[in-house]
Amino acid sequence: MTELTLSKAIGAGLRRALLDDDHVLLMGEDIGDLGGVFRVTDGLKHEFGADRVVDSPLAEAGIVGTAIGLAFRGYRAVCEIQFDGFIYPAFDQIVAQVAKLHARTAGTVTVPLTIRVPFGGAIGSVEHHSESPEAYFAHTAGLRVVSPSNPQDAYDMIRRAIASDDPVIYFEPKRRYWTKGEVDLEHEPLALDKARVAHEGTDVTLVAYGPLVATALDAAEAAAEEGVSIEVIDLRSLSPIDFDTLEDSVNKTGRVVITHEAAQFAGLGAEIAATITDRCFYSLEAPPQRVAGFNTPYPPAKLEEHFVPDLDRILDAVDRTVGRENSLTGFVAR
Amino acid sequence: MPTRLSEKTLSEKTPAKTGAEIPANDSHHGDGPVQLLTPAGVRIESPEYDSWVEDLSKDDLLGMYEDMVVVRRFDNEATALQRQGQLGLWPPSLGQEAAQIGSARTLRKDDFVFTSYREHGVAYERGVRLEDMTKVWRGTANSGWDPFTVGMATPAVIIGAQTLHATGYAMGIKRDGTDSVAVAYFGDGATSQGDVNEAMVFAASFKVPVIFFCQNNQWAISEPVGVQTVRPIADRAPGFNIPSIRVDGNDVLAVMAAMRVALERARSGEGATFIEAVTYRMGPHTTSDDPSRYEDLGEHEEWAAKDPIKRFEAYLEGLGLLTDKVRASVKAAEDDAAKRFRAACIALQDPEPLTVFDHVYAEPNSGLERQKREFAAYLSYIEGGTR
After folding, report:
1. B112 in contact with A, Cβ within 8 Å
2. Catalytic annotation, pick one of B43, B83, B294, B370
3. Model confidence pLDDT, tens digit, residues B52-107
4. What backbone phi and psi angles, to 5 degrees, belong to A235?
5. How far apart are CA B125 and CA A81, in angstroms?
């Protein structure tokens, strides 16, 4: 076991992939000498050379599009999109090209790309640097979408993503880059499409992924002090979603709260709420609740604490599911 | 019957040139496109380009001719099949045969092409079966062939997207240290797309063996090329440090010569070349289009007089190659191709409903598997009343 930050754990996973398979290469803006704006690829160009850790021209469609051509030639490119809000210029190459190629060629062409995207807010940044675009990609057939929440998963999942013959969008919780944790560099990683019970509980299932898993765990701790037992599920995979694990949990607790930073409307929470309602209808004690970003552009930094779901907003939703007083009921006179 | 250039004969026949250079007068395209045959089929001498086609034998020339004739016939048959309801849509390549055959016929098997959807002549030269070219348009599949068996990717419908794939493929060739070449085919409209410009940036920065082959057929559906550019398209590439050739796209000899210059540059490590083949879309954009709403008939007539097949025919007649026997043989070849294509196209079967779930992912996917199970149960329920 080694103690690593989440960003170093991704770097260690990338390094391992470069060592294990000489058809793996990294492409992106500033990933070479600089080591990426978040230093995730720190030292890799020095170790593997500029041919395998490629500083690309400043063109996101170009990065992803050329990676497709490399895939035709047998290469496994790992593309870095510098920030969440910069992925849109590559949207066509991702959703119309990468995602569909295997199906439209009747399985003859595989596109084993990994597209790394630092995502999410609460880091005091400027516009286009704090977004959560995962629903666009989860909605797109042919892509796998994942997001780790801790250093061990960051390491395991980047390795699984690169090894996968499917294209994987790997969303990195950028405000958790500096979270430290013990990482086993040698164990057999959990399958990429499996959710994880991050904290066991009996009263409410709280579903989170990426940056909000830590918030959800804090909420579980706070709720426990108030006598409510929360089970936290770390989704890990956003497409496909491990509904079997969710179903087991909700059948036990009878209540579910889903939280993400992305806008609530047509977000992943909607899909989860609908599917859980369908599958667990007779176990549910309360309507599924969502705690998400608003349907607004990501706000200026001085407002983001109100936009990004936090412990209090999550607990307010938990209170709604257990029938305690909450923001909708107002304070009930005693 | 003329045969196609095999890899072997081609490598023997390609003139042993080193350091292919684009003639200086091509850095400015004011003198008109490179031409080796006048519209009347008269051979024009070109000190810069003659040597690139001087190896072509009688059989090679007749083979080029036959391929153009067969592809035009196939294209017309496909349009007819659309009119008869056998295809949902068809984008004719009518008029662009020289640009496509002249360039693709001189490729090697290990080269790889990434095209748009009008490159039927290119697909034919790569060895794609005619009926396979129509699967997409009949609606029986989203692609007609295995890209790796013919060295040609599934055509891109999103305009210009494939130029990046070709460039990335060329990055792979360079890594592998081989002398294969990637070719991107696209049209004049595509040159306005960001992807095409990004592809040229990547190609120049990494100096990779890719050829940007632009068929300027003067139209992007209803928009004339003047909406895309106010200068010759070939003038753009030098700004990316990619040399360019502007060639008469209805002159199959000139196209082949230009392509060979570009291939030689790519194979010898000199990087990308941009070719603008100036041609004309003689048909509609697709069978759903109505050019009478926008096309100038005078211009259409002007280009009809520059027809690539008639021109080459006149040239071959001048050489005394078009004997009655040859004409009969070419006619038999096109009739046979058309007959077999028609039958094979009409015989293409509709896919089974559950195949919609096939190959969406390369690895098992729990979400999709559940949808497939549920849909299968639904189908058997409505069909047989059982689960």
Report:
1. yes
2. B294
3. 999 999 999 999 999 999 999 999 999 999 999 999 999 999 999 999 999 999 99
4. -60, -40
5. 38
Contact residues, chain A, for B365 at CB < 8 Å: 144, 166, 193, 240
* Omega cis (within 30) before A240: yes
Residue A229 CB neighbours (<10 A) = 14
pLDDT at B1 over 50: no
Show the DSSP H helices in B109-193 as ranges.
Answer: 120-126, 130-133, 135-138, 147-150, 161-176
CB B162 within 8 A of CB B168: no
Query: A-contacting residues of B 319-358, CB under 8 Å?
Result: 358
- Sequence-ordered list of residues with C-beta below 8 angstroms from that of A163, at least 6 positions apart, any chain: A17
**Per-residue pLDDT band at B384 (split at 50, 70, 90):** confident
* Beta strands at A237-239 and A144-146: parallel, antiparallel or unpaired: antiparallel
B354 contacts B26 by C-beta, under 8 angstroms: no
Burial label, A20 (beta-carbon count in 10 A; 0-12, 13-18, 19+): exposed
* Dist. CA B333–CA B92, nearest whole Å: 20
Q: Which of A329-333, B237-241, B297-301, B375-379 has the lowest mean pLDDT?
A: A329-333
Q: What is the pLDDT of residues B167-220, one digit of tens each?
A: 999 999 999 999 999 999 999 999 999 999 999 999 999 999 999 999 999 999
Looking at the complex, does the CB of residue B173 fall below 8 Å from at least one CB of chain A?
yes
Would you list the DSSP string of A122-176?
-S---TTSS---HHHHHTSTT-EEE---SHHHHHHHHHHHHH-SS-EEEEEEGGG
Name chain A contacts of B212, Cβ cutoff 8 Å: none
Alpha carbon distance, N-terminus to C-terminus of chain B: 58
Round to whole Å and give the CA distance between A68 and B161: 10
What's the rounded Cα separation, in Å, for the pair A44 and A32? 7
Rounded-to-10 torsion of CA B231, B234, B237, B239: -40
Q: Hey, of A27, A105, A192, which one would you mutate to test binding to chain B, going by the most B CBs within 10 A of its CB?
A: A105
What is the predicted pLDDT for the residue at B10? 36
Q: Quick one: which of B158, B160, B78 has its CA closest to B123? A: B78
Structure tokens at B120: 């039927």
Q: Are A128 and A135 in contact (CB under 8 A)?
A: no
Residue B290 CB contacts under 8 Å (≥ 6 apart), including other chains: B284
A72–B195 C-beta distance less than 8 A: no
The answer to whether residue B14 scores a pLDDT higher than 60 is no
Share of chain B above pLDDT 90, in %: 90
The 3-state DSSP composition of chain B as helix, strand, coil percent (nearest 5) reads: 50, 10, 40
Which one-letter DSSP state was computed for residue A84?
G
| pLDDT per residue as tens digits for the range A289-305 | 999 999 999 999 999 99
B142 contacts A104? CB cut-off 8 A: yes
